[in-house]
Amino acid sequence: MATAEENTAAEKGIGRNAYPGWLVASTWIIAVLMTALMGFLLFRYFTGQPLFAFLSPAGRGNETSTVSVLPAFEPTKPYQAVERSTNPDTVLPVGSRKEVIEYAVASGDSLFRIAEQYEVKPESIMYANYETLNDNPHLISVGVNLKIPPIDGILYQWKQGDTLENVAAKYYAEVQDILLFTGNDLDISNPVIEPGTFIMIPNGWRPLQPFVVAVTAGDNAGVTAQIAGPGSCTPAGGSYGTYSFVWPAPYYGIVSGNDYWAGHQAIDAQCYQGDSIYASDSGVVVYSGPISGGYGNLVAIDHQNGYLTLYAHLSGFNVSCGQSVSQGQVVGFCGSTGNSTGAHLHFEVRQNGGFINPWYVLQ
């Protein structure tokens, strides 16, 4: 049974597991302080104030920042750089032009160089100017206006009864390419083209009509196409070629104007007015005089071994028809006769009646 003392202690709440009074009071004080701090922080949070700015040392916010000054750069060696000048001209990317332009041929021009300037093939310019050039690059002359297409292909004038399918097939092109070329300005869903309208046929082509200025050659030349002009003759005998060909102009290997291509089966060798022109190989002269076709003054040498060479645009002659010549002998003088925009030598090599690339045989 409990004693009187134990009953009295129980009534007062005093026992072995009771907490000291000071501990209970401290706990309540801490709880109240934490609640107050939480309320203070929530107030700062919802009013947009930094939560812990009040903990910063006094006066820290009033400090002023300073700007560091870098030392002056004094290189020990001279500074080198590439200077680039401002170019006010706009350089258009390849293929960006959409319209046909007119170009007036100037002195020194050639079809080949005009094509390079406008980034199209010379054949494309020939196609666009058939009525002017008739597929003969020698008909180019100073002052002639040429149509320059925007891209490679055929510049075609639409005719009554034409269809996209027929025109594309005629020039080995694709209908889709014609429709999608923006310069044609066609409605893809309903492409209506009025007769007389010029359109581009991208990548279209046709065989070029070969320009031929033939000469009367000896019996052994094998040249079948013959046109007798005022400077031609049919000699009997004479010197024979060596099957080797030297550069016929003073400046070895330099082309001035047209190189060899499908529409110009020759090379235009650089020379200046009055320079000596040399026989590329030994043979007999079968033409010496003016001739049609834009060649001007022409010398032709039959090498009597299947080869024949032509030297055109000469300002004068140093040989006569029927004369035998040796390799390297002066046959005439550089000029710009015929259809030419500047002094140069038009040099052809023919074999058995056909044109060959002079680069294949020149030493």
CATH T-level topology of one domain: Glucose Permease (Domain IIA)
CATH superfamily of one domain: Glucose Permease (Domain IIA)
Q: Helix and strand string, N-terminal first?
A: HHEHHHEEHHEEEEEEEEEEE
Compute the separation of the termini in Å. 141 Å
Low-pLDDT runs: 221-227
Characteristic terms for this protein:
single chain, 363 residues, Membrane-bound Lytic Murein Transglycosylase D, Chain A, Glucose Permease (Domain IIA), three-stranded antiparallel sheet, elongated
Q: What layout of secondary structure does this protein have?
A:
Blueprint (H helix, E strand, L loop, with lengths): L3 H8 L9 H26 L54 E4 L6 H8 L3 H7 L1 H4 L11 E4 L4 E5 L6 H7 L4 H6 L17 E5 L64 E3 L6 E3 L4 E9 L4 E7 L4 E8 L1 E2 L6 E2 L4 E4 L11 E7 L2 E3 L7
Antiparallel strand pairs: 1-2, 3-4, 5-13, 6-12, 7-8, 7-11, 8-9, 9-13, 10-12, 13-14
Helix pairs in contact: 3-4
What report would you give on this structure?
- The protein is of the alpha+beta class and 363 residues long.
- Among the domains are: 102 residues, LysM domain (Membrane-bound Lytic Murein Transglycosylase D, Chain A, Roll), CATH 3.10.350; 152 residues, Glucose Permease (Domain IIA).
- The protein has seven helices and 14 strands.
- The strands form four sheets. Strands 5, 7, 8, 9, 11, 13 and 14 form a seven-stranded antiparallel beta sheet that branches. A three-stranded antiparallel beta sheet has the order 6-12-10, with no helix packed on it. Strands 1-2 form a two-stranded antiparallel ribbon.
- The longest helix has 26 residues.
- The termini are far apart.
- 32% of the residues are buried.
